Structure formats: C-alpha cells, structure tokens
Amino acid sequence: MHRWLWLSLVIVALDQVSKQLVESSLMVYETIPLLPFFNLTLAYNEGAAFSFLSDQGGWQRWFFALVAAVVVIVLVVWLSRLKHERLLAVSLSLVIGGALGNLLDRLLIGHVIDFLDFFYHSYHWPAFNVADIAITLGVVLMFVDALVGRKLDSKA
Q: Which residues partner with 41 through β-bridges?
C-alpha cells in the first residue's frame, strides 16, 4: 500500500507552503481577523501539542523530532503491510504527512509554525497548522476504521 504515500507528500507540501505563506506575510503574533471566530495568527511552538514542554530550554526539539521520526517509520512499515484496508491506509498516510510536516519544521527551524487560531469570546484554542489537521483527521479515521473498517473494506 505504498501507493498511498502520495497523500502524505501532498499533506507535507500543503503544510509547508501554507506555513511559508503565513510566515512571509505576518510578524510573530500578528493577527488578521477573518471570521468572528477565526484569525490567522503567526505563532511558533517549540513544544508538542498545546505547547507541551515548550519552555524546557531546547532539548525538547530533538526529543519531539526523534519521536516523530520513529512514528513515521513505524507507520510507513504498517502502511506497507496493508493489503486492502483503504480507510486505514488513508488514515496512516494523513498522520505520516502531518508528522513529516511538523518534523521538517523542528529539524530546519527549531520550532513548529502554527497559524490557525479559532476562538470563542476570549477563549482561544491553541493555534495549529495543516499538519496538525492531517494528524487529527488521520487519528479520527483510525478510530472509524477500528469500529467499522472491516465492514467497509468487505463491501469494496
């Protein structure tokens, strides 16, 4: 099922292009309101999800890069062993692409670029990016596959 890796590459490309567009257009923490609940805001995340460990002095960059690299390798091996599980292949490809997008940021610039800022009144969800969307969607599809994947695959 390596044929699904094209989806991972599309995710990496969309992620990196979107990050570069935002970074070339905004200053750090500059905000452009787009909707009553959504802004573009350039932010740098040196930690993991929700800025976990972002204030730890730098070691976390390499730790999260190593974790992402191991996850990508494991998921590529898993993907290569699939036969006809299309939904699972799509979900793994999305997670691989998202992990690679954020891994590139960590390795090349030392932090992840985030820019999608959703909020309600004064509560802001932590800013995120295209890679994070792909990872989240991939994980959700893994759960769907675990619940109904065999039924879907047997009908195809």
A: 31
